[in-house]
Amino acid sequence: MSTILDIQNLEKIYHSGDKPLTVLQGINFTLEAGDTCAIVGPSGSGKTTLLGLCAGLDRATSGSVILNNIKLDKLSEDERAQVRNQYVGFIFQNFQLIPTLTALENVMVPLELRGERNVHGQAMELLSRVGLAERHDHYPTQLSGGEQQRVSLARAFSNKPTILFADEPTGNLDEETGLRVEKLLFDLNREAGTTLVLVTHDLELAEKTDRIIRIKGGTVVSDEKVQVENRL
Ligand SMILES: Nc1ncnc2c1ncn2[C@@H]1O[C@H](COP(=O)(O)OP(=O)(O)OP(=O)(O)O)[C@@H](O)[C@H]1O
Ligand SMILES: [Mg+2]
């Protein structure tokens, strides 16, 4: 097994208010390639912030993020974008679809950035996997929250990520659609060996992963392997 993500003494302090706000401190963990992991914890505990740092979307105040043996700390914004483009898929808590592009075009963007062939066909295939082929020409505002969530999933898959970060991937979905999305995520893990890091408030979903990292007040309070009998 090789280490895909190595987090060392990570700290994040925001300076936007009148006094500095320490959101994460002393975070340490490593993930092996192909692992599945859930990050759980109360609202405001720093889960989304942590995911963004792990994925190279944002930079830590101190500490290190080593993704696929690449140390992200000293990289420029452009260099981090390249690393993300090459290895990372991200499903945002608030989807972050591009509002001026249709569902299909949103899914096509990462494929085009990678210079793939048959971008249109591949994007349609991904949209059908999430059950949205018929809505391909709709804009995000014309889609429900759950539908936008699924476009976001298709877009993250289109990057053929080595590691996929998903922030509350089933948070806006009804039970049936949620289970479908879960299956897509775990299939991707099984079939492509994609490492999965999920943030979730759903403990049933968390228990389907290999490992649960619990954070509270910006620090890891427990980090445990999930018992095999609970697994999918
Ligand atoms: N850009 C920012 N500037 C200042 N404070 C921020 C910023 N982003 C997040 N925070 C604060 O950092 C803390 C952690 O936020 P974060 O979004 O990581 O929490 P979370 O665990 O994902 O919560 P939830 O479960 O509600 O999504 C919160 O108190 C939040 O207000
Ligand atoms: Mg969050």
Attribute tags:
232 residues, alpha/beta, Rossmann fold, four-stranded antiparallel beta sheet, 7 helices, 33% helix, 28% strand, globular, binds adenosine-5'-triphosphate, binds magnesium ion, nucleotide-binding, MacB-like_ATP-bd, translocase, ABC_transporter-like_ATP-bd
What does this structure look like?
The protein has a six-stranded mixed β-sheet, with helices on both faces. With 232 residues, it is an alpha/beta fold. It contains seven helices and ten strands. Helix 6 links the parallel strand 7 and strand 8. The chain starts with a strand and ends in a 7-residue tail after the last strand. The mean pLDDT is 93. Helix 3 packs across helix 4 and helix 3 runs parallel beside helix 5. It has a single domain, classed as Rossmann fold (3-Layer(aba) Sandwich). The longest helix has 18 residues. Adenosine-5'-triphosphate binds next to strand 2 and helix 1. This is ABC transporter ATP-binding protein. It comes from Pontibacter locisalis. Keywords: ATP-binding, Nucleotide-binding, Translocase, Transport. InterPro entries: AAA+_ATPase (IPR003593), ABC_transporter-like_ATP-bd (IPR003439), ABC_transporter-like_CS (IPR017871), MacB-like_ATP-bd (IPR017911), P-loop_NTPase (IPR027417).
